[in-house]
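Hi support team,

I've been running sequence recovery on a batch of backbones for a student project. Most finish fine, but this one hangs at about 90% for roughly twenty minutes before it completes. I'm not sure whether the input is malformed or the queue is just slow. I've pasted the structure tokens below so you can try to reproduce it. Let me know if you need the job ID as well.

Thanks,
M.K.
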């Protein structure tokens, strides 16, 4: 091919390229074809603004049951550039789950990477700062691990979350262990996300208010669950989990973590369903636990509660333990906390009175509020400093 032919060929290729190449469209604000949306936006006074870009939506509502004042939901208002918006609060410092209902369809906030799992949903998560023991602060931090184990009792793989205190990875020290259980509508992720358990322990330990400890947050549900299935489902969740806890969770923790295994080195507490599970496990294995905590709960059925008929026999079933003076000698703390507006406050009161009737020294406090994480985080802050005092390092 001579120079003239080569030049003609080059010009033809260039012309063909010009006819098939299209210049890229200019970048859209926000990078995804819409306006830049900030959500959630937390103001210094505790007000939270939620926003959602939803051009084709007919209605958008905020679902955030734990946020005071939101009730059954808050309508978002459509503004400029198809962005829906609502502001709530001011609200107390803490962590809050929320989601959007877009024309009846539940949707997490696409602008917020923080999430929290519950029993059957994933929620977006927003943190309002201002609480010295819940905030993320410049203190030594522990770690929360997501742990998979095989339950021989249930013949399935299971998951739990485990908090190890600052310095655990680089040391050889053995620690006491605190088993912390969730409620019926939650899962093993809940205490470490919306419950802020890791940050609470970090801050308590850094302030010298709590002993360094390992905190185990297991999955309390052994199968799919809903309240619509009646009391049998709740009883099964309590009973089957007890088998998994004693037969698999405790052996796994003691075999894989540097935990002390004396009775005085073990604590157990739980909220709602987890409180009922706590009582079931602790008083069936009282030789193993020195500290027991029950948050917004008690013996289901003791006053005709959600456990249904028949659960009031719990006292009879555990009578030998409740009246065993030697076992009770090593029991250092039985602690109850319930909100005055909690639907289980009657259950808590009746359970406390029953335990006192058997000579147990029960610490009981009623607080403002109801059956919400606003209370359960505070109960953890009250309970954890009472654990393992005077045990020392071993």
């Amino acid at each position: 091919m001579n120079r003239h032919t080569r030049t003609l060929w080059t010009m033809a290729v260039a012309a063909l390229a010009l006819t098939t190449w299209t210049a890229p469209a200019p970048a859209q604000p926000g990078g995804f074809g819409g306006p830049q949306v900030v959500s959630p936006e937390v103001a210094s006074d505790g007000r939270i603004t939620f926003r959602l870009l939803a051009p084709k939506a007919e209605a958008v509502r905020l679902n955030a049951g734990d946020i005071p004042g939101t009730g059954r939901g808050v309508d978002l208002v459509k503004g400029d550039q198809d962005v829906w918006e609502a502001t709530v609060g001011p609200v107390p410092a803490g962590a809050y789950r929320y989601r959007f209902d877009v024309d009846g369809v539940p949707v997490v906030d696409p602008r917020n990477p923080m999430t929290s799992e519950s029993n059957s949903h994933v929620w977006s998560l927003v943190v309002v700062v201002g609480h010295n023991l819940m905030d993320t602060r410049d203190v030594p931090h522990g770690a929360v691990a997501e742990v998979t184990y095989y339950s021989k009792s249930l013949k399935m793989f299971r998951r739990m979350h485990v908090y190890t205190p600052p310095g655990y990875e680089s040391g050889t020290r053995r620690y006491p262990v605190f088993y912390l259980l969730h409620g019926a509508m939650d899962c093993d992720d809940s205490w470490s996300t919306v419950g802020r358990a890791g940050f609470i322990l970090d801050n308590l330990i850094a302030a010298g208010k709590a002993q360094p400890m390992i905190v185990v947050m297991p999955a309390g549900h052994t199968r799919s669950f809903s309240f619509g299935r009646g009391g049998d489902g709740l009883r099964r969740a309590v009973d089957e989990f007890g088998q998994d806890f004693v037969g698999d969770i405790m052996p796994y923790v003691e075999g894989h973590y540097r935990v002390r295994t004396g009775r005085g080195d073990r604590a157990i507490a739980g909220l709602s369903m987890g409180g009922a599970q706590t009582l079931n496990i602790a008083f069936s294995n009282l030789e193993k636990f020195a500290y027991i905590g029950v948050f917004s709960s008690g013996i289901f059925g003791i006053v005709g509660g959600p456990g249904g008929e028949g659960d009031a026999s719990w006292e009879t079933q555990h009578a030998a333990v409740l009246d065993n003076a030697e076992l009770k000698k090593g029991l250092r703390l039985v602690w109850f906390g319930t909100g005055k507006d909690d639907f289980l406050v009657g259950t808590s009161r009746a359970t406390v009175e029953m335990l006192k009737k058997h000579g147990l020294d029960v610490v009981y406090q009623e607080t403002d509020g109801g059956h919400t994480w606003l209370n359960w985080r505070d109960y953890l802050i009250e309970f954890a400093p009472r654990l393992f005092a005077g045990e020392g390092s071993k």
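--
Follow-up from support: It reproduced on our side and the slowdown came from queue contention, not your input. The first helix runs from residue 3 to 20. No action needed from you.
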